[in-house]
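1st attempt posting a full record on here, be nice pls
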Amino acid sequence: MQPIQLLAPDGSFAEDEVYAPYIRALGDDVLREMYRSMATARRLDNEATSLQRQGQLELWVPCLGQEAGQTGVITALREDDMVFPTYREHAMALHRGITPEELLRQFRAAGHSGWDPLEHSFNVYSVVLGAQTLHAAGWAMGLQRDQAAGRAEDELVVACLGDGASSQGDVHESMVFASSYGLPMLYFIQNNHWAISVPVATQSKHPLALRAHGYGFEGVRVDGNDVLASFAVAAHHAPQVREGNPQIIEAVTYRMGAHTTADDPTKYRTSEEVESWKAKDPISRYATWLEAEGHADSGWFSEVDAEAKDLAADLRRAAMSMEGLELERVFDTVYAEPHRQIETEKAWLKDFEAGFAEQTGETEGERR
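the predicted structure (as tokens):
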């Protein structure tokens, strides 16, 4: 099952009677904005990784190399289509108007999340693998009923996941519900070849898109390093999803960096493999095509680079000024009403912290 590709690694465009017309219909503004989203996401990614290495973030989850699939799909959707991300959809988040500072808030432990999901039609990041697909199915079921009652338009719901999460039981349950009830669900699987240290060949012996057939809906494979193909495939299949025909888009891409900043990918994959994927870089191939087609010139690319540099500087300043989330708030926001077990655990934490104060002579106020 060959992935659909419009833009080759060398930047050449392949005409396709089904998908190419979607690209030819785009104006310079959309084409340029897709490049800006990809370049901005990468610059943010690099800066956030540096901040974590310097001890300014608790953790960071890179999306290096996966910018094209995210950008293409989110650009093809409507602004009111609800997205349920994992923890790596930074390009999609930026496209929806979530600021870099808001993205970092959760990773700096300064808040449970940094944005209002309803304002951006973009749910908070999910760290529990596969859980977001159940949340998405529940949202889609409610949306379907609102649509039937005339209270909602024909929005669709996007459930993002990786190849590793596709092995989770939650994903199976979500797809069963989507198929059984004809939910307007689009499953966007970013197959980046590695579920932490487990290769995709161990996760699945066949393309993940083929799993759709077992649930009774359609699956399609796309070159996830090709932003144009990702856009065209999503634009082509979205109308079917809106009509209650759930579908899978498997974007075949590669995680160029670590799974998270707590991971060392050199322990389980070769440098030769990484180098082979560097030649398929999604940003450089798209830049080559944009310039060759006259959609952008070197001056414009320099402007985008300058914008990305300013963003990185603003991001660093914002991160340094964020105040940490008081741990008591973590306990207080689990349940709406007081809970005995939560109170017990909070009391244990206070005793634990008091032990450090006795050693250092600090007061609680000084320690905070």
